[in-house]
Queue: 4 jobs
Job 1
Amino acid sequence: DLTISFAAGLSKMGFIPIIHTIAPFMVNRGFEQIKIDFGYQKLRGKFVSIGSSYDYAALGCTHHCPEDVNLMLNIPNMQVVVPGHSKEFEKIFFKTFDYKNPFYFRLTDKENNEPVNVKFGKVAHLQKGNLLTLILVGPVLNYIDFDLLKSYNINMVYITTLRPLDTINLKKINKNIDKFLIIEPFYSSYLPTKLLEIFERRIIIKNISVPYKFLTNYGSKKDHDIKNGFFMKNIRKKLDELIQIK
């Protein structure tokens, strides 16, 4: 809390502070100060976390933080970026360094194998198709067998910027699509709600995300991933089920 208030003081003096620590220490324990000092006062600052959700699973649930994205999105002017690779973070971070809004960058040391050519505030269209859209958020690409999904007539959209969300391209890409599967490495809430706002028609949304409960067991991140459905066999099953829905 004191670190965040100190950073706010630096921001008031004209500096652009960068605050970096693991997500539960920054977001959970410092949320009120982030909200009041940076959000309410409209100060510039860069909040850069690591270890969100359960990257540090071996340290137990005190080091879990799957709620960070939705918490930070509850600060109205907070810009939220979930890069899937360090090179994506580097590109967006320096391109947005002088923006007036506060920023939350959610990093991981379990990054995607390869970076995507991303732009701040824009989605990346990875594959075109007609049956449904698979939305991939940040560091989830390693779960995907892209060669296998080439045989599926589906859209694939990669999102790193959650706010501002690229609603224009989402509407354009999904003009004739009404089924969505979202894979997101945190608690689900924001994206399904935004999709329902964007499309003025009946749409079907399914998701693979961190379940809304306390994860009390120890183990590795991979152990949690498997238990929570972040693997290709389960993703393919969800896609097949969604395609069959009339």
Job 2
Amino acid sequence: FVYIVRSNFTRPDLEEQWNAWYGGPKLAEMMTHPLFLSGQRYRAAELDRSVRYLAVWVVESPDAFTTPEYRSTWGFVEWTPHIADWSRNLYRGPEEDVSDLLDVPPDGALYFAAFDGVPEAEAASRLTLVEAERPDVLWMAVAGLDRSCPAIGVRRRGADVTPKPLPSDLASGIRETMYRPITDRRRAKRG
């Protein structure tokens, strides 16, 4: 499963400190929780930049969000008043761990397509169409949490490779963004 957290930060004067906390101690702490496999953070760089920050976590199962460890440290603590446009959704990925697929090096980028304006009832048929248009992208349907975005697509790319936007007949309601990594991908360390 792929856990996606998207947000904006409203205090430019505190943004550097927030990124240091979220990309440092918070990211490291999340990797100690049961069922969390990996995580990495990104900042919007090209195409649609209306949602500036993206965190991508790989978890073994939805049970990751019910453990006492996760529940005891959930949230942004003192940063909450400055978080805007926040969403968290869980997507069903392939059976295998996709951490390597999502590991974006510092000089790379992550293509991210979000079905933000597509009703969930319509998402499955739209997903089939975009999969045919972009077969090299990992497309996933929402499986839990907020369910605010019914499907996404992700693909690691070189920083100098920006795909052409989806054709207009497919693009309606889909927000495409190129994100650059602001942290390395962290992996869980298990005994």
Job 3
Amino acid sequence: MYKPASKLAYGAVLILASEFFLVCAGMVIKHLNGIATTEQTVFFRNLCGLLLLLPWLWRQGFDAVKTDCIGLHFLRALIGVTAMSCLFYAWGHLPLAEAALLKQTMPLFVPVVAFLWLRERLSWHVLVAIAMGFVGVMLVLNPMQEEGVFNMAVLAGLTGALLGGGTKVSIRRMRASDEPAQRVVFYFALFASLLSVIPAALNWLPLDRGALAWLFLLVVFATLAQLC
């Protein structure tokens, strides 16, 4: 059994690994811009992620997905699909460095969402750190375009980060039921696939084998990040 210090270090390593895989996924999304629509990319990411989990489900049986948190799983998927769509749009329409920076604002939103949803206490130094973080992000990004119009891709990225913080807090909300990571990822992929199929069908582009290969690579990176 891990000691608290070991748990902290182990969690930190997993967070770093997750962020690394997410950046790799972002690079693939950038490559797919113009080849596949954002809606297609979101759908394939979730559908293929679900397919990757089928061997686990086959080995474990349906008992592995029995849950008392089905409502929370659906809510997490709904918020997550919206966040994913926003972030994928930002990855596709912003320079990689700016898109990655926007994605990194997600931890700034997590304490705020946790306060509003779970009533977790916000200390003054956390509030100061959040404020400094947002000031720094705005100074680096400069979200106003040359014409003085707000860059919609930046707004989409920030919205995705805010909603992404909500998905992370939802996992904390499930802790009373001891939901394992595999079950959380499975239900996210299942519900997200169902929620994203109609937008993808309405915004469909023909895909060749190369595009499908890149989409599969995206799924691998994103699923590894989610499991971490």
Job 4
Amino acid sequence: MSQLPTPNECDQLFIDYNVPKNINEHCLAVSGLAVKIAQQLQKKGIKINIDLIRAGSRMHDWMKAATFERLKPNKKFNFIPTSEEIDQWAKIHERFKGRHESEIAYELLRDKYPKLAQFIKTEGGLSADPLKPRDWEEKIVHYADWRVLGTRIVPLDVRLDDFFARYNKMIIKNGMERWNKIKEVEHQAEKEICTVLDVSPEEL
């Protein structure tokens, strides 16, 4: 049994769970950037599991909609949910109410794709410990996600500011010191990646 889904299997998981179109498109954009960075780093001699990065970045927000209190239209991302998306959201939201999206994905993926499930659980976004040392795979997936707003690649600070604007209550609750550390860690990741590749962030 393979511990990682193929790209086609990832696509099918999005279809099977009626993941909202805007989340699907965001995950595709993040995966595209993450794999590009990973391939460039690999050419520089960095040992990287590109298959894990491809699957991990593709699936990183797979269950994000399950954490929403409502699945509603979003003008910013030009999204109007279908009845199928709303029905699926309601089932998953009720089943996993109060759980973080990385924990939900872990529960749904661990039997068939244990390596991916563990990666998503460990990578875990804001639920992960920002002080924990990260391997290249985690670092790249995190960084690619922080560079993609919707489907657009934007400067890191633009993405961080947008995230704070949308989730400031949660961030403040968790403590500004933690948030500042998260920002510092992502800027450091950007510096490491760009130094190895000898490029500016705009060239990624």
